[in-house]
Amino acid sequence: MGLSSGASSDTQIEYWGSAVLSEDQTGFASVSRNQSAVPEQTVFRGHGVCLNPAGKESHSALMMARRPGSEGILFNLVTGQESGRFRALPERQFQGHACYSADGTEIYVTQTVFSPGSPDHGKGMISVRDADSFNQLREFESGDPEPHEVLLMPDGIHIVVANGGRYPGVDGRSNDATEMSSSLVLINSTTGAITERYTLDEPKASIRHLAISAQGSVVVALQVQRQAMNDSAPRPLAAVLTEKRHFDYLPAPENLWLGAHDYMGSVAVHAPTGIACMTTPKGNFAAFWHVTSKTLLGYFQMHDVCGVSVSTLHDCFVLSNSAGELRFIDPVSQQENTALRQSYPNLRFDNHLSQPVITLKG
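^ thats the sequence. predicted structure below, dont judge the formating
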């Protein structure tokens, strides 16, 4: 499975992009198996990386600045070189993620109004930008504070947004979790109309990261704001909005939630099997669920693991961590293919890995 155009993995190269930290500097790195990686410096710390579904030939990947951020940068995944950048407009702060429209002509960027003293301060917004010029075409509300990850739904019309729910402090960096309003919303990407809104029964669970299954279910990674709570009881950290629009937690024993320390960092779905992988760098493991049956399948231990993507060529998950390691994990057995293991000692992979880009060798 996973090969295209009749080519074999021996004639193809698969690349992933990630924000990286290296010798107290921040940058972007494009990595592939059996290839050294040198980061491009970006000055700011990056976060989410997304691909243009209609521009695969350009091998471009868009990296957004870590929240609260002010820049987005376009890179070529094959060369690792920058090919464009844009900045936030006045009184706006980027929130770490973006995604493209189905035809690749527009970019949807999560952002927050930053205007202390204004009644709009902290309002969640989506900036819609032209994918070529980066000019803002329109802007609409996300429905709740702190929109974080945004993805395009399979219908190509709606975007799904994880509203983290916290309000920004006057310094723009701290977040107030005393009053939270976290939600998962579906928005018409053309009109900006919020067509569906979902919440969980834990008011201090911040909905942050997303992945979509082939059937249209949205898998959600949560982060519990323990500093704003009065007890230490474990809370679920994973949820799913099914294709039938039922939103609820994914099951796991309490010791798994305890071990994750209130923090799930990233999530991806392996489309052929419908299995989701969710990472917790604080817990040093990745957990696996079958999405449709909501069954916990197992876990894989890895120090400070946070990035997760898929390998199309090797039909498995790819995990990354702050030690510059890549691990290739079979979704069904949750076992590592050690023959594929990679290490980049000069890099510290940050939170997220992009989806892969595949090119022919030579």
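The first strand starts at residue 12 and ends at 22.
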